[in-house]
Amino acid sequence: MCRKFYVLFLFILWFNSLSFAQPAEHVRQYGDSLYREANSLKDDEKKAEALLELSFFWGDYDTVTALKYITEANEVLGKRAEQEYYKGFSAFYRAAAHFELNPELAKKLYMQAEDHLSRSKGHPKATRFRVRLWGSYGALLQREGKAEEYVDVLLNKAIPMAKSIRDSVLWGNNLQNVAMTMMNLQQYEKANRYYREALGLLDGKPQSDEQRLILCVNAARNSVFQRDMQAARQFLDRAAEICARTPWSSAVPLYYTAEANYWERNGQVQKALDYLERGLKLAKDLQSEDLVPNILYGQYETYKRANRLEEAKKALLQVLPYVEGKTLLRNKQTIYYNIAHLHRLMGDFKLATDWYEKFKVISDTVFAHAGEQKILDLEHKYNTAERENELLSAKAKNQAQELSLRRAQSWLFFVGLACILLLMLLLLWFISVRNRRRLGVQKELLLQQELKNLKQREQISVFNAMVQGQEKERSRIARDLHDGLGGMLASVKLKLSAVADEQRKLTVNDTDMELYTIINQLDQSVNELRRVARNMMPESLLYMGLEAALRDLCKAMEHGAVSIEFQASGLRANYEQPFLISVYRIVQELLTNAVKHSAAEKVWVQCGEHDGHVYLSVEDNGKGFLFEEAVQAARGIGLANIKNRVELLNGQLEVDAAPGKGASFHIDFDLNG
């Protein structure tokens, strides 16, 4: 389950990047068009604000360019740049420029912006920017794993400010961020409440279709996690209406994946696959390098859960080129492991071994790459600082004394930075060595666990073969008893009855009475023989289905001292024969134990099917026992067989038993497992 959750979270990260990313070839062209629009403005304040928003755009692509436009905006403002409001503006956009590169510096700059903007409350836009900065500051806390602090910032800072200025869009967006955090923490009920409140705020707002579409999709996913399919359907219907108005939105494929998740949970696998196919086609039309592999991976998981392994393999192998072409090693690690696991399920152990080897190699690389990536990040920080310093020095090139002073300061800065880098490199080397040692220990533990799992699977396979052999032998003996010996005894009975009738016509004496006694005993023997044959392989199980067989069994086991009540719901008549026999034997063993050992007056048997699961429970009001002790004792062979049969059918057994309190056995069989 953890691995599945990790894979799901990994692909959610791909989705998050999609909403804000633009094709690389269009970034420069789009940025230049924004710059031309800013320069065309005559009002200095509006021009400065446009330049600051342009720096916000470039913050995702080039930090130095973003800082250059902030400097240019301050030059346009002149002396007004020293006002509290514009100081807050400048600090806010500088923080945004350093958001990815230097989170700690970004947090300090956001707090400087808060300090300046809180002192300029008279300006109408100050509070709106305070809402934005607190949302960004909280996002940095969330990246550090401080989810509770992030929610606290949203609920006690950003959202109250958005309420105070009646900005329903900012208010709704921050509520959605709270909802998504709650959903990641598996607090689905709270998340649902925030999603609905956010949707109410965004409804009817112009140019909010994209935001409402993403909100409806996330709310639908949350409802599916809650198993509230009715609410999920309502959110998805609203999302479908928005998709009809914006058919080429980059969020539409997200809607198709949410529909697929909904229909798969409702047991309609083919309909889920149809939605995934539609989403895949649209993602390809949008030329999205992130959405296409995500949807293909969703197809793989759907096929795998439906046990359509060949189609699952085909979908997963289509993900491979996208992962191979990326530098993110953890995605490769995940895909390699799933390919290996899929080949193992299909019985191709040679290919499974090859892919497990690739998985181990990439796992080693992930640990090594972590250290290398930190070094590259440090180098990138160094280069960015150097370029920013050159930009500032170029502006003051006509002031010789200031230039000389800045050069001296830069030289001291670089010497100090080099020393810090050297210390950090030594620290990274030490951490890398330690991580390699830990990795070795983890690999050894994984190998031991794999061997343990293999041994357990072999034991289950042996038990399966033994059970199948026992059932075949029971069936053969039952046929021989019923068709062979049963027929012979019936024939002998008929002949004796004919002889007795002839004798009675001639005379009646004591010898004739003894002959009738023998015929009655022979008749009882035939009935007992047939009862034994039916017990070994009941005909009602083979020809009338599970419900009829269990009902007959309960009636047969019932006698004056013990009353057995049977209830069934939703049982089909077309279960596979091995499943029928195993469930029948489990109930037979449990009833036998209850009748013989529990001293119970009442036994309840319930069996039903719902949502791909068969549920079975046997309860009695007898004297009870300690389950683990009974299994370990010699008399617990029957209970051990029950546990083995349940494990063989991919089921789960829960036992609630205690001396003096009766015993309850609850079993859940997953028919899709």
What does this protein structure show overall?
The chain is built from 25 helices and five strands. It has a five-stranded mixed β-sheet with strand order 1-2-3-5-4, covered by helices on one side. It has helices at residues 2-18, 24-39, 44-58, 63-77, 84-97, 103-118, 126-143, 147-164, 168-184, 188-202, 209-225, 229-245, 252-265, 269-285, 291-305, 309-324, 329-345, 349-395, 400-506, 510-536, 539-543, 546-557, 577-597, 627-632, 637-648; strands at 563-569, 602-610, 613-620, 651-657, 663-670. The chain has 673 residues and is mainly alpha-helical. 28% of the residues are buried. Among the domains are: 1-19 and 250-326, Tetratricopeptide repeat domain (Serine Threonine Protein Phosphatase 5, Tetratricopeptide repeat); 463-535; 541-670, Heat Shock Protein 90 (2-Layer Sandwich), CATH 3.30.565.10. It is elongated.
